[in-house]
Amino acid sequence: QLVPGRIHAREMAYDETIDISESGIRFQDNGDVPDDTPLLVRIQLPDGSGSVDHEGRVCWRKPSATSRGEEVGIQFVHTSARDKALWEDFVRDQLGRQNNNGSGGGILKG
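Structure (tokenized):
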């Protein structure tokens, strides 16, 4: 099940989020997110509970199998206690919904 959401990394916004976990995200990028650069990743939660901020870094990238550009993996390296709790609750809730529906793939989609 895909859930609406939006990611902001630096001054850019991304709508093509592929999947999420408690420790990071994977999304479509057109090459704007540089390697080895600290990023502030703000994720607007689609359930109306607000947004969460993560400090992150690009940990991998590969050509996209479905569109132009590439897929990028961001690892979260620091998150406030408040945002970490919100994010972990959101991810567990969404993964539970996905497992109950038998759907695969990403769960956060812009």
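The two ends are 13 Å apart (CA to CA). The chain has one helix and nine strands.
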